[in-house]
Amino acid sequence: MNWKPQDWIEHASFGLGRVNESRGDRLDIDFVNSGVKTILTTTELKRANPPSLDFKFTRDKRKSGASQLKDVARRRQLVAEAPTTSTAVTQPR
Hints:
93 residues; 1 helix; five-stranded antiparallel sheet; elongated; alpha+beta; 5 strands
């Protein structure tokens, strides 16, 4: 079957999903409960209906690896720049 972007499908293991892209013998599918997967077009899939007419995926759409690395680097920088508080330890007399 020829799948195109925005088609809703059902996969035996991953459940309900929406086709993001068709790339020759592969499909990129955003599954409702299993996240984004790339599967072969020879995989047995059934046509499905969306969970609701106004359904939206709630998770962040895929950030590029470079973007994620920048986020991590920025968090590390903020931690390194954060003022440290020192507490004086007093010795009993």
